[in-house]
Amino acid sequence: MTGEKVETTTDRRQRLSPGERERLIVEGAITFFAEAGFSGHTRELAQRLGVTQPLLYRYFPTKQLLIERVYEELFVGRWKPEWGTLITDRSLPLRERLIEFYTAYANDALTYEWIRIYMFAALAGEDLNRRYIDLLEGQLLAPLCAEIRAAAGAPTMAESPLTTRELESAWHIHATVYYYFVRKFIYESKVEANFEAFIADVVDRTLDGALSAGLQPDGAS
Amino acid sequence: MTGEKVETTTDRRQRLSPGERERLIVEGAITFFAEAGFSGHTRELAQRLGVTQPLLYRYFPTKQLLIERVYEELFVGRWKPEWGTLITDRSLPLRERLIEFYTAYANDALTYEWIRIYMFAALAGEDLNRRYIDLLEGQLLAPLCAEIRAAAGAPTMAESPLTTRELESAWHIHATVYYYFVRKFIYESKVEANFEAFIADVVDRTLDGALSAGLQPDGAS
DNA sequence: GCGCTAGTTTATCGATCGATAAATAAGCGG
DNA sequence: CCGCTTATTTATCGATCGATAAACTAGCGC
């Protein structure tokens, strides 16, 4: 037992093309930083990758540049434009549009790695999150408010501008879905196992609440 | 300019009673760790307190013990039993109870320090959050479900047991309020400035949605 | 005022981290 | 099969962290 080498997979050193190795490092870094946070050590990352720590520095001159690459890989271009068009596609009932969107969004965006690294970045003071929220409000929440108005027969945005309180009503549904995954992946707490049923319930309650009484475009108290 | 001492407040060393000093350290640690996270360095904490770093180790033998003291200070006994009785007090309309509760809860619990340290602890893998969620579901969310059932004329919990899907409907409101403060204190993003109006809107949408269609105690699809 | 207690500081250790330089060897071209 | 390129490893540095030991001094009691 003592003095023996660990030899997890192959002890032999393996030469990969720079492209392959870089991809392995980036993907390993995403998984590793999602678990350990950005205060995770480069030596542990290297160990999980089965390489030595200085090798990382051949591909990424500093740890910070590797982190920024992780940001880029996870967040840049992750928003699919068709999601925006799906929300405004009035050939489908709004209920079906919302269920379809959040099912796709949960699968593609709200993953273990995404949720945790997003939160780590926010706590570290990155402006990444604010930029993402701007994107979300512009591409999803504001259009959603317009669709709810249309469904309720309320004035259009041109007739009555979007208020911050109305925007919060769109956050009402988005926050609930998002927090479902925070509880699942960050708190690692038990959540409703049937996500399909969960999202349908959330959409139904949201639409019923928003259409029956919650709509106050002029911000009247 | 060069070579001079910084001398922020008083350069003179000040002797405090152990009780006072300990309280200052704990309060300073809460503020500091809320900003920097638990990977924040003891030297920077000491500098903010205006003392030297080894002094911390006279009051807390290890950094970890100081962190656990911060947990204790922030989370243990923070839940007020009267919040649970407020929710079930049927002499008030459920709408008023919810608004009153979340106003008090936001003031007392959902502070900058609480939200951020709660999230840091969760990402670090502490079981603190799961225990808090158990408390929340037992003392707040499950009773709230019972109140919504009563308001809708649905069967009692004794007649039809609480389902996980129904519990998610209570998370619907709680997640929205919680995420409002996540956006405010963690993302440091712009949120609706009028919290009073925000919470009233959330409660109204939630009750309308839950009472009109969202109530399915038997979990029927 | 004087001395002792103990709160506080100075000095420093060992471990560990990010990062660098030099040695090693895998694997393709000839 | 041999030699060169370069991907990878070994060895190590300087900085910094948590933590410890010893020196210092503020301030209460007599």
Write a concise keyword list for the protein shown above.
homodimer; 221 residues; mainly alpha; 10 helices; disordered N terminus; DNA-binding
Seen as an oligomer or otherwise, the chain set is: homodimer
Series of H and E elements of chain A: HHHHHHHHHH
Mean pLDDT of chain A: 91
Main interface by residue count: A-B, 51 and 51 residues
Regions of chain A with pLDDT < 50 over 5+ consecutive residues? Answer: 1-10, 214-221
As a whole number of angstroms, the C-alpha radius of gyration of chain A is 22 Å
Span of the ends, CA to CA of chain A: 73 Å
Report the count of strand segments of chain A.
Answer: 0
SS strand fraction of chain A:
under 5%
